[in-house]
Amino acid sequence: MPVQHWLTRYHTGVASIDQLHDELFDRMDRVYTDIINKSGAALVSKQVGELADKLIEHLDEEEGEMRASGYAEIEPHIANHRALRTQLAALKKRANAGGNVGTDALDALNQYFTTHIKQFDLPWAKTLAK
To answer: How confident is the model at residue 28 (pLDDT cuts 50, 70, 90)?
Structure first.
């Protein structure tokens, strides 16, 4: 049973973006579940690293698509990505060092990610649809 629930109101209408977002939330679910089930620091660290890597890959793809489409609001969007990259790097570093990665860290990431989708991805998707 998913810990986090992906809401269709966060769908952008761009199938490739929505598929990646769904996958990222599924990955967060797995990490939450393993933390709650006390599956061990090694597994949680591995999954946090994979989640961070996949999210960074997604950000790179998104930025490439924005550049290719000539998106006018690209700079604030990329600035928001930089902040997310910083948060991901800190989380990954903590996990790799054997630090405690609790649900609080993922709650913050989840909140950031959903806010990013609402404030940045949905407006960008609307321009793609035109």
So the answer is: confident
CA-CA-CA-CA torsion sign (125, 66, 78, 17): positive
For residue 126, the model assigns a pLDDT of 84
If you search the block for the tokens 């998913």, which residue do you land on? 2
Which tokens belong to 86?
């910083």
Distance from chain centroid for Cα 29:
12
Dihedral angle over CA of 70, 18, 22, 97, nearest 10: 0
pTM: 0.82
- Tell me the one-letter amino acid at 82: R
Q: By the 8 A CB rule, do 88 and 55 touch?
A: yes
Q: What residue spans of the chain are helical by DSSP H?
A: 15-36, 41-69, 74-96, 103-116, 122-129
Assess if CATH 1.20.120.50 describes domain 12-129. yes
Domain ranges of the chain: 12-129
Q: How many other CB atoms sit within 10 Å of the CB of residue 31?
A: 26
